[in-house]
């Protein structure tokens, strides 16, 4: 796991050295173990490394020759490569930098037995795939990744093309900006801003979408001029301009597959074991986050089966708060499998102290309160000496777990309601102009059809926007802020393809989602009590905000980003009544947005107290 950034100029000149330096400084937190630089003609690239696999020789950039039998260039391990140095863009040498993990790198090496591999890096096989398959190389990868490849041999206007590829589920982020200098890319938008390539000017309609949905959708980010490489997309860039796009879908085509109910449990066991096994490939210590729910409990059971040593599992608790406490269930599961269980407290003081730092790390914002415990759990894991954690994201989306799916499938007379039928701010008279915020959700309508069931269409919609732009962004930023890599076995393509094509009755039955996964867990670990009704993971943000609502209201209302799109008086009234139904969630969204805007638009450094940070911006 790492940070990557780079630029291909339009006029053919070498990139500005200052831009590359700013890239490296801005992404240093993503790669505390080393820094690499590549400069060849009109392309410059920067890599900051978090060393997980091949600690000794896996530094990037990596190089491969134009012949399938050529080795990676021996200078690939150099941290600095510039024009005039051997291998730095010489004709015939292809350069790669990557952020992510290629889980099938062992199997890919077996496919290239005649090739001479110079490292044990999981990112070296993609170079040979590119030489064999060209721009469609990513279709052969199993993993999470954002990859940049510079090939000096190709290009129509002038020699050289740049490929940017992102994994199909969008687990790893990748952004780009088409600027006067050319095409720039980075793992985080803030790196493009720090390099002076983009002014941090928000798109108002996207800000409203964020406040209403809690995340943003589609290609456009909240920053004008910065876009996302979409999940599964590969961009081809020549002469500093995008000339082609190719898209690999995350989910299989068609509807429900031919699944034998009698063998479905065994097939789930085989595929889950396979996914967890490859997600544990690492040369550093790893653990997992345990909520006590179905997904994380299933991961822990499988990890315990596949490991000789006790698994280290981290669970968050909210002492003294009026929310469902899953400590007892998590503790029982951890004890049953002999895991080393670490319980991490998160209280009101943590909330006010951590919130500014969380807003600062979420440059691509999501108003998801789960960012808060994720941030502290990551800090605790790193302090314990871990660099990798496995988490349960994706289980709900692929096994039909969310209550909103069941609600959307019910007739309206029985309480049915479409997903995201209302925004968090609807009916509160807060917005100056709230029209049009749903425009980004329209493209997900295309996930229906192709013989898919209504449940599959709902799952596919979440996989298209909610999963990459909320859950996975949250995981990436909050963990990488501490130099920790998050891995998500449930959205491995092998397991995901099986889960998505399961019949609906193996996903939803007797009013419960994730039916097959619950059955598997009941058989594998009855102590998990998988058929108990789960109240859902909740962080008591509304409770904490309500205690300081009268102080917060004027500060949030006066914050420039909020004042531009909301009526200040209505904001103050909202915070005075933050303990009422519906108001707490809206107040949380506005509070997070105010802190995010102060940091990423106004350029204010966050303090260790949310109110102090707001007071400085008001």
Protein described:
- The chain has helices at residues 17-26, 105-111, 125-133, 189-194, 204-213, 261-279, 294-306, 327-337, 348-361, 371-383, 395-399, 403-409, 454-480, 493-500, 515-524, 541-547, 549-558, 560-565, 568-576, 583-600, 610-617, and strands at 2-9, 34-40, 43-49, 62-65, 80-81, 93-102, 143-151, 161-166, 175-178, 182-186, 227-228, 233-238, 241-247, 286-289, 312-317, 340-345, 388-390, 485-487.
- The chain has 618 residues and is an alpha/beta fold.
- The strands form 3 sheets. Strands 5-2-3-1-10-9-11 form a 7-stranded mixed sheet. The chain has a 6-stranded antiparallel sheet with strand order 4-6-7-8-12-13. Strands 16-15-14-17-18 form a 5-stranded parallel sheet, with helices on both faces.
- The chain has 3 domains: 2-202 and 222-247, Glutamine Phosphoribosylpyrophosphate, subunit 1, domain 1, CATH 3.60.20; 261-421 and 438-528, Rossmann fold (3-Layer(aba) Sandwich); 541-617, no CATH class.
- Helices cover 37% and strands 16% of the residues.
Question: Which descriptors would you attach to this protein?
Answer:
618 residues, alpha/beta, Glutamine Phosphoribosylpyrophosphate, subunit 1, domain 1, Rossmann fold, 3 domains, seven-stranded mixed sheet, six-stranded antiparallel sheet, 16% strand
Short description:
37% of the residues lie in helices and 16% in strands. It has helices at 17-26, 105-111, 125-133, 189-194, 204-213, 261-279, 294-306, 327-337, 348-361, 371-383, 395-399, 403-409, 454-480, 493-500, 515-524, 541-547, 549-558, 560-565, 568-576, 583-600, 610-617; strands at residues 2-9, 34-40, 43-49, 62-65, 80-81, 93-102, 143-151, 161-166, 175-178, 182-186, 227-228, 233-238, 241-247, 286-289, 312-317, 340-345, 388-390, 485-487.
